[in-house]
Specification:
This protein has about 450 residues and is an alpha+beta fold. The protein contains twelve helices and eleven strands. About 30% of the residues are buried. The N terminus is likely disordered.
Length: about 450
Amino acid sequence: MLYRNLCLFLGYLTFFNLKNLLQACLIGLLFLTGCSTTSDVNKPYYKPFSSPVPGQVFIPSGTFSLGSSAEPDVLEQFSQSKKISVAAFFIDQTEVSNDDYREFINWVRDSIAITNFLEKKDQYMVKKKPSDPAGTLEQINWRIVGNGRTIWGKASRKRNPRLDEMFYKQDHLFNKKGDLDTRILKYSFGIFDYEEAFRNRNNLAKTQSDYTYRDTINVYPDTTVWIKDFANLANDQMLKSYFSDPAFGKYPVVGITWKQAKAYTIWKTNMLNNKTRGLSTTRKTVTVRLPSEAEWEYASRGGEDGMNYPWGNALHGEKDCLMANFKVAPGNYVADGGLFTKPVRAYKANKYGVYNTAGNVAEWTENLYTSSPQGITGDLNPRLLGVNDNARRVVKGGSWRDAAYFIRSASRTFEHQDTARSYIGFRTVMSAPVEQSIKK
């Protein structure tokens, strides 16, 4: 009996080893036949990741030709192409809408009301720690403020008569009596200049504050751009309604300077971090920013390197429909279905799930403008930064008022960072963690 059991055990062990050996051979065979080159073996597995920022999509790391197109450029500034690599990041699927930007406006409005005009503001503030009442930074508790109804309701307005100081007391140039005085909507922020700090790293006499650019700006969109940008144009209805009318809530915000767009990213960063890590945290887990020119173009192409547009080279798609919102021909703004802007999810998204990077509104990028960026930047995550007040910033994507040539992914132009236009908006990005994989 003992002999029989020993034989069965040895037979099972032999079968088990043969089975494992066969599996190992099959796995090895798959590795040998699955990759045509040695380099393929080293390519990490690619899968999409979720952004902590709502409404963003993942863009994997990759290599592409910045400034390339399927046809030769007739303008010298568009004729320079350069192969570069970009690290993984997240980008807004859509341009920032009027509704999105209005959240920022309402936050600034409520902050000013609580800080400067309420009789009793303690109910809206974070309670100070009993152990350190003097050392706790005064901070608004936005979970209590919510959508602001408790501030702006009739009962609160009656208890806090000074709130009336935030509204026009008589008709103004473009406003009526009782409208919010948008001139008071100012936001203070700081931008740390890492490159300048690095250049002066051996100067021990300077501190972080010496390299921090600080500014206070009005953040309300310039609605007069609908008149200023066009001579002798009957556009007063757009001036009156585009930002204030809820019907335009899902349309891209315009009349925004680069500084206002930058302020929005700083506010968004702070709000997301407070929500994620608690009200009184100083540690940042999320940093929202404007895209570099390279990031913007890479995301716009949707993996289609060398193509004219995010979807390919033809302006028409299925059923001969135009694929974007642009000026189709001299005097023809409506053939694409829109006279001015269109909703931020109009038209088809590219392969990365990004909408309207061609046409609709042109978009601010982080980069300083130079006519030859390829010559002064590297080939890995290139960008050109600075905080000069008179700076020109790269604008990408073209708009509803531009011809097809200017809505190509390769096309680029500029605008002064303190200038707002009726055809320039923006979207935001966030860097992905370094360990996230590259495009397969």
